[in-house]
Design goal:
One of its GO terms (molecular function) is C-22 sterol desaturase (NADPH) activity. The protein is of the alpha+beta class. The chain has a single domain, classed as Cytochrome p450, CATH 1.10.630. Helix content is about 45%, strand content about 10%. The chain has 17 helices and 12 strands. Strands 1-2-10-7-3 form a 5-stranded mixed β-sheet. A 3-stranded antiparallel β-sheet has the order 4-5-6. Strands 8-9 form a two-stranded antiparallel ribbon. Strand 8 and strand 9 form a beta hairpin. Helix 12 crosses helix 15. The longest helix has about 30 residues. The N and C termini lie far apart (about 55 Å). The C terminus is likely disordered.
Length: about 450
């Protein structure tokens, strides 16, 4: 299969372009260029070995990071070697500094944004992007700096493009607006109240100002804000696919924890195992990104086991090895009924054991992020944000979508989000007394914003 045909197949079929037959977990294919795509859960875990596989700098498979949107700096998520250790150490410290503020910031951002929505919020996915920005940016850059969520959204849209050497005939998009968004975001970063502290933090890891700024620009705006917004859309959409009884069960757990701890706190989040299981199942069935890009650092033989027995594959130095979390998280050797959405899957002792095979964050969920591994340094923060946001939305509010969300794995541009854009037909405050009890400072504004006639909706 030629490069152009392979690319077009991927463009039309998305993750289904390399659907496995489960007889062989390392499959030689062409998705715009020759490569191996790894689909089995155990086999995918082999590419986490940082000594055997290096990341493809500036690439997520067929998606390329535009260097002008990182100030020419290779982001931590795609860097290697000693520079990766410096980059990741910086981002781990940045995230650690923000971690304590995240629950409070999550509640404030969700509720303050809802107060502006009204009963028929339009462009709902962009509204969740604004929620994500409102959670992360104040905790990292300081609350006195006001980022424009629309500019952040423009930056996220412009930061990547389809791999330019695959199909020269692809029409280039007009970057005028996205570049304007980038300039705005970059200016806000450089004038933020914590910028000098962040630059000093970068220097403590051996990074100059330009390198530190480039890391903050991409890792915070694209990975943290954009990535979490994508997962919020998917998680919100999944709530619409479970029964009213299940929604109520999740609500009761969250309400009890919020009442006990007087709001959204780390302690409250720890007492929401059902919400956590729901979120983990969303991330299992709707992972993003769709593929991880690796290049063999040296010749190696990878051993693994499939349903048909032990296997091994020889990898050449420099060979592209792309791993698919989408198919790894649907491996029937690990997950029972892998194509079904089972939100209780990660509860109890069996659910705890399954976390070793949950690889959404470029590592096993049981692993901790370190400078010498691939695990996302923002995993715990991202989980806290998604859990907290969904807990608040499901506990106090009701909504009707224009159409039921669905996922086929074929939409390249939607990543882990539903194939159809999530649009809200109506939105209402479903439990005003509970909201007033737990978040009194937000109650009046939200109560006034949402149409009073809608408040009585069941």
């Amino acid at each position: 299969m030629g490069n152009a045909i392979g690319y077009l197949k991927w463009l039309g079929q998305g993750k289904q372009a390399f659907a496995p037959d489960r007889k062989e977990d390392f499959v030689e294919t062409n998705i715009g260029f020759p490569c191996r795509v790894v689909t089995g859960n155990k086999a995918v875990q082999s590419v986490f070995d940082i000594d055997l596989f290096k990341k493809e700098e500036f690439f997520f498979g067929l998606i390329e990071i535009r260097k002008e949107f990182t100030e020419g700096v290779c982001p931590s998520v795609t860097s290697n070697g000693k520079i990766h250790e410096k980059n990741k150490a910086l981002m781990m410290d940045v995230i650690a500094g923000a971690y304590e503020e995240i629950p409070t910031s999550t509640a404030d951002a969700v509720l303050s944004n809802i107060a502006t929505w009204g009963s028929t919020p339009t462009d709902f996915e962009s509204k969740l992007m604004a929620v994500s920005a409102g959670i992360f940016l104040p905790t990292i850059f300081g609350r006195s700096t006001r980022f424009n969520p629309e500019d952040v959204n423009l930056y996220v849209k412009g930061a990547t493009e389809l791999r330019s050497d695959i199909l020269a005939a692809v029409t280039r998009e007009d970057l005028t607006e996205t570049r304007r968004g980038m300039r705005s975001v970059l200016e806000k970063i450089k004038t933020s109240e914590r910028y000098s502290q962040l630059i000093d933090l970068g220097r403590s890891h051996g990074l100059d100002e330009a390198s530190t700024t480039g890391q903050l620009l991409f890792c915070v705006m694209f990975n943290a804000v954009g990535g979490t917004a994508t997962n919020l859309v998917a998680t919100f959409g999944r709530l619409d696919t479970i029964s009213a009884e299940d929604r109520q069960e999740l609500r009761e757990e969250a309400l009890a924890a919020l009442r006990k701890h007087g709001g959204l706190t780390r302690a409250a989040l720890e007492e929401m195992p059902k919400i956590e299981s729901f979120v983990l199942e969303v991330l299992r069935t709707c992972p993003s990104p769709g593929v991880w890009s690796h290049i063999a650092a040296r010749p190696t033989t990878v051993k693994y086991t499939t349903a048909s027995g032990p296997k091994e594959v020889n990898i050449k130095e420099g060979e592209r090895v792309y791993a698919s979390p989408y198919w790894a998280l649907r491996d029937p050797a690990v997950f029972d009924k892998p194509d079904d959405f089972v939100w209780r899957r990660f509860l109890g002792p069996e659910g705890e054991a399954l976390r070793e095979h949950h690889v959404t964050f470029h590592g096993r969920l049981t692993d901790s992020a370190a400078v010498n591994n691939h695990m996302c340094p923002g995993r715990d923060v991202a989980l806290s944000v998604i859990k907290g946001s969904i807990a608040i939305l499901n506990t106090f509010f009701g909504w009707e979508l224009q159409e039921r969300p669905f996922w086929t794995g074929t939409k390249v541009s939607r990543i882990g989000q539903p194939d159809n854009v999530v649009k809200v037909k109506s939105f209402w405050l479903q439990h005003p007394d509970d909201l007033k009890e737990i978040f009194p400072s937000h109650f009046e504004e939200i109560h006034d914003s949402l149409n009073s006639a809608v408040l009585q909706c069941p």
